[in-house]
Structure formats: C-alpha cells, structure tokens
Write a structure and sequence with these properties.
CATH class of the largest domain: Alpha Beta
Shape: globular
CATH architecture of the largest domain: 3-Layer(aba) Sandwich
Distance between the termini: 30 Å
CATH superfamily of the largest domain: Type I PLP-dependent aspartate aminotransferase-like (Major domain)
Helix content: 25-40%
CATH topology of the largest domain: Aspartate Aminotransferase, domain 2
Structural class: alpha/beta
Number of helices: 15
Bound molecules: pyridoxal-5'-phosphate
C-alpha cells in the first residue's frame, strides 16, 4: 500500500509499520507548529491529495479514510461531479454579498426543505459551519421564547430557557458552547449564555422536572423555549439516544409549547442511511422536529451549514437584521452542496450507507477481537467500544497500517467513511481492524 522509503521501519514490538511518518511529514509538521495556535494538538500527518475513499500524505503514504474529515466528505475526495460543479460555479461567480441572490443558493434551500420533508412555509438560513448553524438556532429559540406568556418582562415574566442534554456537543462559538456539555471545554469560557441549562441525557423524569421548574415566585424559572439535542451524540462517543426517550421529549415539548431543535450537524445528509437521522424511526421514534441544524456533509468538504425552521410562523421570527453572515449562502458552497445532494440521490448513497454500515458492523464483530466489545451507531456513523481505554493507541496503530479512524472517547473508535465507500473498502478496513493487537497499552 505504501510508496514510502520508510517501509522497513519497525514498530516497538518489532512489527512492520507500513505507514510510518516520513521526512516530508516531519518537516512540514515542524513548520505547522511554528505558525499555528495549538488548539488541535499536533496533526498526525500532512495530507497532500485524495481520490475516492483514499488520501495520500506528503511522503506518498496511502490511507483508506474511514473518518472522511469527521463525517464531512460524503462524496470522498475529488469526486468528478463535485469538482465539476465547484469548477463551473467558480468560473461563473464565487461570491456575492447578501444584497444579491444566486440560483444555486435558491435551488439548494428548496432541496433541503424537500429532503427534510418540512411543511409548506418552512425556510432555510445558511451559515458556514455547524457551530454557526446552532448559533442561528439558539437565536431563533430566543426570539421564540419571547413570544411565550411566562417570558413577558412587562408582566413580570422571566427569560425563557433553552435546555440542552448532558454529553451533547453543539460547537465552540460562545452561544453553541453554552449548550455544549463537556465541562473541560466549556468551563474556561464561562460566563456563557444565561438561561441555558443541562438536563441528564436519556432521563425522561429529569426532563419533566426541568420543565416543571417554570413558575412565579422566587424559585420559579422562565418557560422553556426549546430543547436542543442530537439523536446520536457524536462527540460523546457516537451514543444514540433511546427512541422512546426522544418521543417523550417531543411530547413534553408539545405540552409546554417548546421547540424541539435537532442538531443534525453530524448525523445529517445521509450519514445514518437517511437524509436526516430524525427520519430513521429506530433513532427518533418518528418524531418531527421544529428546527434542524446541518453542516459537515452538506457540501462534502466546502464549509457550509445552516438551519431549517419547520413551518412559516417559526421561520418568520427572523426578520431583516435578526441574523446574518457575509458568506451565508455563498454560491460556491451552494454549488458544492447541490452536487453533493444530487449525487447522493443519483447514486443511491442512502442505501449504500445502510448496507455498508451493516457490513462494517458485521465484519467488526466477526473479527471476534478481544479488543472489540461491541459496535454502536447507525448507518455509516459507528463506534467500536473497546475493552480498555486505548483509543489513541488504536487510532495511531490503524493510521500506521493505512486506515484513518479516530479516538472519539478514551475507549471508543469512531468510523465515519465517505458515503461512497465500497464493499471492498469495507472488507479492507475490517481486515486492518481485525489485525489490531488486543494488548495495546492504555492511553496516558
Ligand atoms: C453535533 C454537532 N454539532 C455541532 C458541531 C460543530 O460543528 P463545527 O465544527 O462545524 O462548528 C459538531 C462538530 O463536531 C457536531 O458534531
């Protein structure tokens, strides 16, 4: 698999290390750390180019990519339809301000509303990332909250609240971070948004109690404007919520006139084998959200995200000046997204995600590795639960053996290959995973 001069390098246990770091990688990684703020830690390799499900580093090592830029590159690398669409759009017009509209942007918004099955009158807001998509959702929820009776300041009301779940991840901008649970990334930046509270994930009673805190008097809180949640908590280790719990949350929101916002930044655009995870009954129990956020895979590598508000009354809460961004709905991104959605449809990639996901799951369990406890997730968003906390060592070992996966938790590996992944790609990945030593050391 490797064209690297370092092919003869041996691992600590004397084993063959086909994709060890080469001299060009080392040189450019030194350069990287000289000029970049250290927010991501040291990159593992410097990548040069990709094709299909494969990436090549700057030393010429080849990798089978089962991470896809963290669930982004739905069409893999250099997909001809994507390259053509972006190239053609770049030659036409790459950017206009929002004083002007473009055709790809309009077509994309219509298509997104359609694949989400959103009702007549639903509208889209475009941003540039997952965090921005959730910022927009949080702002919309704030406006909605002001329409709730108990939140009217003129009548002694209290600010409406937004409820988020423990272990949830919604991004790192200050608004999205306010709804992101992990204390180590949230606490250093407090104080964050007021009236955002965390409720124990999966605990229906805790949700009922959080809503019940609404009330007058010194201990009463404002009404709940919205609950924001992921159906599969991706960054928490690819942990699906229980569908009955999701249904219960929907019912509680309905009773209290609160919005249910589903963050589909990681799960959306085909990753679970459905356009959106809420369309997968096994994950959602068939609930319909009031708003959905999306990003990552929508433009298969072009930075884009956004929000779909279901129905006209909610959509109409944003009026000129409520929100915006210079790049929102950028035509180059919109062309990339349209090419992505059209290719997913034309090439039946939703079905491929379901079938290859099932094959991957079966293959991993058939390895009967003492390192692998079980596989969780849906479609092509999966995690292998490891029997001990060695996920970083496992990720490193896989990389050195030509497979990209990531340590999504101390004891779990995430697999999120491009939706174009083939049967032979899956077999190859399973063969590499199956060869992984079971006695990898615990991460420090
Ligand atoms: C569910 C979810 N929401 C939001 C985000 C933030 O997206 P971005 O990194 O594009 O800002 C992520 C990123 O991993 C995510 O998984």
């Amino acid at each position: 698999m490797s064209t690297n001069e370092n092919e003869t390098e041996l691992s600590e246990d004397g084993g063959h290390v086909p994709n060890a770091m080469g001299p060009q990688d080392e040189h450019w990684l030194d350069e990287y750390s000289d000029v970049h703020m250290n927010v991501f830690g040291a990159p593992l390799r410097v990548m040069d180019h990709g094709s299909g499900t494969r990436l090549w580093d700057i030393d010429g090592n080849e990798y089978l990519d089962f991470l896809a830029g963290i669930a982004v590159n739905a069409l893999g690398y250099a997909h001809p339809a994507w390259v053509k669409a972006v190239g053609e759009q770049a030659a036409l017009v790459a950017h206009t301000s929002n004083y002007f509209a473009t055709r790809p942007q309009i077509e994309l918004a219509r298509r997104l509303v359609s694949i989400a099955g959103a009702p007549e009158g639903s509208h889209v807001y475009f941003g540039n990332s997952g965090a921005e998509a959730n910022e927009a959702a949080i702002k919309l929820a704030r406006l909605y909250g002001r329409t709730l009776p108990g939140a009217l300041p003129s009548m002694g009301g209290k600010p409406a609240r937004i409820l988020a779940l423990t272990h949830g991840f919604h991004g790192r901008t200050l608004g999205a971070l306010s709804a992101t649970w992990k204390p180590s990334i949230r606490k250093p930046f407090e104080p964050l948004l007021p009236a955002v509270e965390f409720v124990e994930s999966g605990d229906t009673l805790a949700m009922v109690e959080a809503f019940a805190q609404t009330g007058n008097g010194p201990y009463g809180k404002g009404p709940v404007a919205a609950v924001i949640l992921e159906l599969i908590q991706g960054e928490a280790g690819v942990r699906p919520l229980d569908a009955d719990y999701v249904k219960a949350v929907r019912s509680i929101c309905d009773v209290h006139h609160a919005l249910m916002i589903i963050d589909e930044v990681q799960t959306g655009i085909g990753r679970t084998g459905h356009w959106f995870a809420f369309q997968c009954d096994a994950l959602s129990g068939g609930v319909v959200p009031d708003a959905v956020t999306f990003a990552k895979a929508v433009a298969s590598g072009f930075p884009m995200g956004g929000l779909i508000a279901f129905g006209k009354p909610l959509s109409d809460l944003f009026t000129p000046g409520s929100h915006g961004s210079t790049f929102a709905g950028n035509p180059l991104g919109a062309a990339a997204a349209l090419a992505t959605l059209k290719t997913i449809e034309a090439d039946n990639l939703l079905r491929n995600a379901r079938e290859r996901g099932a094959q991957l799951r079966r293959g991993i369990m058939a390895c009967a590795s003492p390192l692998f406890e079980y596989v969780r997730g849906q479609g092509l968003l999966l995690a292998i639960q490891l029997t001990h906390p060695c996920a970083h060592a496992a990720m490193q070992w896989a990389l050195e053996h030509g497979l990209i996966v990531n340590a999504v938790a101390p004891d779990a590996l995430r697999l999120a290959p491009p939706l174009i992944v083939s049967e032979t790609d899956v077999d190859e990945a399973v063969a590499i995973l199956g060869a992984m030593p079971a006695d990898l050391p615990n991460d420090r």
